[in-house]
Sequence to fold (330 residues):
Amino acid sequence: MEGEPVNVNEFQELARQALPKMYYDFFSGGAEDQHTLKENVEAFRRITFRPRILVDVSRINLSTTVLGYKISAPIMVAPSSMHKLAHPEGEIATARAAAASNTIMVLSSMSSCTIEEVASSCNAIRFFQLYVYKNRDVAAQLVQRAERNGYKAIVLTVDAPMLGRREADIKNKMIVPPLKNIEGLVSTEVDNDEGSILEGFAKGALDASLCWRDIGWLRSITNLPILIKGVLTREDAIKATEVGVAGIVVSNHGARQLDYTPATITVLEEQFKTRHVVHAVGGKVPVFLDGGVRRGTDVFKALALGAQAILIGRPVIYGLAAKVEYGVSR
Fold:
């Protein structure tokens, strides 16, 4: 590839060249047949525009607000784990790039840099993503640390009672590198001769009993607003507003959990059948989306279908692997 990358696909190719196969497969891969992984991208391509002409567009303002915080454009950094597998600077480089771009980064609880390290790396608005572990005290400690270090919201992942079957990780016997946030709290020592050590760790650590009543428990231990990430149906969107969340993220976990779930943009498209998530929440809380966003036109499509903003995961990783902080900013 000659010259500077001009789109996410070119950054992906640079990342593929830069990373060991195990790590590239981990970041780029999805569950089982990877049907939803392909559909997340392809579904955007099937949506076309009806452009209107002779409209004054001489002054463009892309900024928006998320939970009252102003960002430069409706594009945030989605939570994704273990950035040090992409580059040794890890989430520190990602956080600085997000700050330089004047947007919000959602730090994964499975990050390879700690809550405190990322908080002290630069001045910015950040949210914290939470997995709930079988030992609820671990989740409570993580939430308290995030609150103490200035994170502005908790993003609860609700689509991972157990890890999806990621066949590339099984074949590669994907390892679990040090997860600094839970060091000394949850053991990452796993003996899994059959395949992915990461899958074995998640099976032993994550709380598969997590359910709607636990939102009340989470609200009782923090003053921070709570968003839930992993909503794909109108019914769950309604329940989310009923339990008092501050926002929902339409997400299929980057197609890494349950294959043959709908592409996320199609969940918003269902508005034409009057069953869509945005209609269900009735403006009570903001709706965000992640999964398959690769172009500015994809961002626009999500906004046109009712999302307030989108989050990007893999594009950030590809930028980090290819060109570190600069790559994430690009």
